[in-house]
Amino acid sequence: MNGDREKILGRIEEALQVPARLSHHGAGHGNGGQSHAAQPFAGVQVTAPFREWLPPVGHELKERLELFARQSSALRTELCECADAAAAGARITALAEAGNWKKLGLHAGALTDAIVPHLPSSLELFRTDGGYDKFALETCDAGLTECECLVAQTGSVCVTARSSGGRALSVFPPHHLAVASRSQLEPDLTAAYELLARRYPHGYPSFVSFITGPSRTGDIERILVLGAHGPKWLTILLLP
Amino acid sequence: MSVTETIAEPVAAAAVSDGIMDQFWNDVDRTTADSARRAFVRKALRGYEVKRDETKASFADWQAAREAAARTKFEAVNHLGQYLRQFEEKFTSRGGKVFWASNGQQARDYILKLAADRGVRSIVKSKAMTSEEIHLNDALEESGYKVVESDLGEFIQQLKREPPYHFVFPCMHLRRDEISALFEKELGSAKTDSPEELTMIARRFLRRQYIEADMGISGGNFIVAETGMISITENEGNARLTTAMPRIHVALIGIEKVVPHLADLALFLPLLGTAGAGQWLTCYNSMYSGPRQEGESDGPEEFHVVLLDNHRTRLLADAEQRDALHCIRCGACLNVCPIFKNIGGHAYGTTYQGPIGSVITPHLRGLQNWKHLSGASSLCGACTEACPVKIDIHHHLLHNRRNAVAEKPLWWEKWVWRGFAFAMRRPWLYRLGVRLAPLAQKLHPVIQGTPLDPLQAWTQTREFPEAAPTSFHDLWQQRKGAKR
Question: A55-239 has which fold?
Answer without folding.
Answer: Rossmann fold (3.40.50)
